[in-house]
Amino acid sequence: MRSWYTILFVFSVVFVSWSQCVESSLLKIGGDYRNTDYIDHCPTYNFKYSTVNDNSWKLDGIKGSSSAIAKELNDVKKNLEKKLSNQLGTDLFSKLELQSVSVSVYDSLSKMQSRYPVVDLAKCKTKYFFFYHLLPTKGVKFCVGIALDDNQDIISELPFPSIDNPTVLDNSLNVCNAIRIAKESGTPIMPIQDVYFDFDFERGAYVWVVRQKVRNPYGKVLEYNEVTIEAVDGTQTTAYKKTVEN
Question: Highest taxon of the source (predicted)?
Answer without folding.
Answer: Bacteria
